């Protein structure tokens, strides 16, 4: 408690360098970066550091008895897993920002924390600077919580925002996002919804105490969005946003998915533009709370990592309290959704088992169908929906009477 | 740690009854209300409770060895102070929602917590359901924080919202707010800005680690707002909102005040309507974060109290870490503001020592002057400004180039 923190930093890219800058500049952090482990020592870097603290051998960090915290911001899920699990096994606490790795390995990482009495904090993994995980874990630590829904990916939101608010072309907007450094090293990660999915998986553990493996969650991205979809949304005075949500559908069940969604101006997330993230937390007594902030970029992520580092000074760790709750809700895909599906050559009306078809539009260039279908059936039809001429978006139906 | 919580509840009005409902209904709270202390046992109440747990003698609660937490939601600052200080002296932790009492006695209450090794939590005291205190204390626990600014009072915001968004008359809106139960027992408390002030004093302790006594803070309310002011704001496409803020003006100094403010549509707080509260937290790396939620009403406040009760299960207490920071910023009123002052009979231009007068308007019915004046001089002129024909509003000048 209240100890001086000596950090071994893994990764020295955009986020790693920002972490270095923020921690070196924080006069009350009582923390310093003692070693930095990188893949390539010789690589030229914008931030100047004492070369003697650089190493390319992870063991130099793990074996250093003065190091009492690992900060891991490596852009490679495999390497990240090795670093984090090694550190936890050695009883060294870790602060990590690796959402893909955490979303895939969380049950095991929770087990490792318990077994070795160590701690893993990862608020930076979800929504950059917005303290979503910490608040779900500590503050919304009760069974009033009904829903967490939001825009969790900064770069896809930036692109959609350029398209809808600035009338830019999708590809031009994508290029700009990459130039500004909002996109991950592989932009398909953002555009396919995978990045949002990983964050949603982590959020669900802290929201409802249930881990759902990423592959069990229906995830649809924005990369096949078509001019006709943008036009259609504009005509209805809506925006299309990439939305991740986990929702209690009744007392015993919840569902979750990542999908483009038609968002009307009355919703909080309508005004979440550019690289920002916004999360709506809905509960039984407080109705809706909205948290909004920068979701992408080195410095916002670094500020979140600094908060976790500071928390370690006081021995903070996640208790995963909700995982031990009685009557935890169960994950279900047995919920009815209303979706818009655009297509040109794929024969969507005959390939998708709609319960009810609400609208159908056929023309020389574009076709779309709007209909009701269960989430389970959408999952079963993932192959069909992945055709390059198809674009799917959620029309929030069972939220029709709500102002979220 | 992880103990069963047995609660002695003081106060059984709107908030107290909501606390009772929420805690009785929370299946994972591991908490129960064992005794309820009220002023008048015989008073009929909407919520039915076992009469044997009611008492009008505080000692019945303090002397009960099974009670390990006091929840205090008494609507009387004097009584609240007696309850909280007695409990802390006896080593019983307390959850309180009494902002006026806490804002006035915080240094002493911090001392009592230290001396008797007890804990006082009070997230419900500021912004109802929004976890502002907990986040400032735990998550923004570093010196990156530059500003906390927001709408902290639900009922005055409800009234201004009816006036600006629904073209209602000020007095009709006030009446409606009281009918809906948004106003405190004494509405002048809300309208004079005192309620916002008390919250701001508490927020400042957790934001910057500095306690500033309420009487040292310039506070101006909305009760003298005039149709001409509303018209003027509308013409400029702005809204007038009652805004509380604490702002670092440079590395070593901060200022704070509560004042009506002209808010343009590009600001986050512009869209905080009705009884909602909204807080913007600005920092060096993350720029702006915005938290938004219900600030008034029994259930939102009760949900916040439940969060504090749950936190006590894990022995949580505020560390007041920032109070021990080196180079804490100092409170100053030596900052220049630009203000709008409306008047009819009081001779504002000759009574207020403006540095520069920017605009002056004189007519048969209304007059106003816009000018630059230091906060210190506004404080010195409190007497003049309290005349019933005078209304003052801040024109955010030194924020001109910022998008808050």
Largest sheet of chain A: 7 strands, mixed
Number of strands of chain A: 17
> What distance lies between the first and last C-alpha atoms of chain A, to the nearest angstrom?
41 Å
Backbone structural class of chain A: alpha/beta
How many helix segments of chain A?
A: 14
- Oligomer state equals homodimer
| Largest Cβ-defined interface | A-B, 51 and 51 residues
Instruction: Name the beta content range of chain A.
Output: 15-25%
Helix fraction of chain A by DSSP (H/I, runs of at least 4): 25-40%
The averaged pLDDT of chain A comes out at 92
Low-confidence stretches of chain A: 399-404
Shape of chain A: globular
Radius of gyration of chain A: 22 Å
Can you describe this structure?
The structure is a homodimer of 404-residue chains. With 404 residues, chain A is α/β, with parallel strands linked by helices. The first copy, chain A, is 34% helix and 25% strand. Chain A has 14 helices and 17 strands. In chain A, the strands form three sheets. In chain A, strands 7, 8, 9, 10, 11, 12 and 13 form a seven-stranded mixed β-sheet that branches. A six-stranded parallel β-sheet of chain A has the order 3-2-1-4-5-6, with helices on both faces. A four-stranded antiparallel β-sheet of chain A has the order 15-16-14-17. In chain A, α1 links the parallel β1 and β2. In chain A, α3 packs parallel to α4, α4 runs parallel beside α9 and α6 packs across α7. The longest helix of chain A is centred in the first third of the chain and has 18 residues. Chain A is globular and about 70 Å long. The C terminus of chain A is likely disordered. The interface between A and B is large, with 51 and 51 residues. β12 of chain A pairs antiparallel with β12 of chain B, so a sheet runs across the interface.
């Amino acid at each position: 408690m209240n100890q001086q923190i000596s950090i071994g930093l893994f990764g020295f890219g955009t986020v790693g360098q920002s972490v270095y800058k923020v921690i070196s500049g924080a006069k009350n952090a009582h923390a310093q970066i003692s070693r930095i482990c990188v893949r390539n020592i010789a690589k030229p870097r914008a931030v100047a550091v004492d070369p003697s603290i650089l190493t390319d051998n992870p063991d130099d960090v793990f074996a250093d008895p003065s190091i009492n915290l690992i900060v891991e911001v490596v852009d490679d899920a495999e390497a990240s897993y090795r670093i984090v699990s090694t550190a936890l096994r050695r009883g060294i606490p870790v602060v990590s920002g690796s959402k893909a790795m955490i979303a895939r390995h969380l049950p095991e990482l929770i087990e490792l924390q318990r077994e070795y009495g160590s701690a893993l904090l990862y608020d930076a993994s979800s929504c950059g600077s917005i303290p979503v995980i910490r608040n779900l874990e500590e503050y919304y630590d009760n069974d009033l919580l009904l829903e967490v829904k939001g825009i969790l990916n900064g770069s896809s939101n930036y692109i959609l925002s350029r398209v809808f608010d600035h009338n830019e072309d999708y590809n031009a907007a994508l290029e700009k996002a990459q130039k500004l450094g909002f996109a991950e090293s592989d932009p398909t990660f953002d555009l396919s919804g995978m990045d949002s999915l990983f964050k949603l998986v982590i959020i669900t553990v802290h929201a409802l105490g249930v881990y759902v493996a990423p592959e069990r969650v229906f995830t649809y991205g924005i990369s096949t969005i078509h001019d006709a979809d943008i036009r259609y949304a504009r005509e209805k005075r809506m925006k299309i946003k990439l939305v991740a949500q986990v929702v209690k559908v009744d007392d015993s069940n919840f569902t979750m998915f990542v999908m483009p969604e038609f968002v009307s101006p009355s919703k909080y997330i309508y005004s979440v533009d550019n690289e920002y993230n916004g999360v709506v937390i809905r509960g039984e007594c407080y109705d809706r709370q909205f948290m909004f902030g920068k979701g992408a970029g080195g410095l916002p992520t670094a500020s979140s990592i600094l908060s976790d580092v500071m928390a370690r000074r006081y021995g903070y760790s996640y208790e995963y309290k909700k995982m031990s709750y009685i009557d935890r809700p169960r994950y279900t895909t047995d919920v009815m959704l209303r979706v818009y599906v655009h297509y040109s050559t794929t024969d969507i009306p005959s390939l998708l088992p709609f319960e009810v078809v609400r609208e159908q539009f056929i023309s020389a260039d574009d076709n779309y169908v709007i209909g009701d279908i269960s989430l389970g059936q959408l999952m079963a039809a993932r192959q069909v929906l992945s055709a390059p001429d198809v674009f799917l978006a959620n029309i929030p139906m069972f939220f029709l009477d709500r102002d979220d």
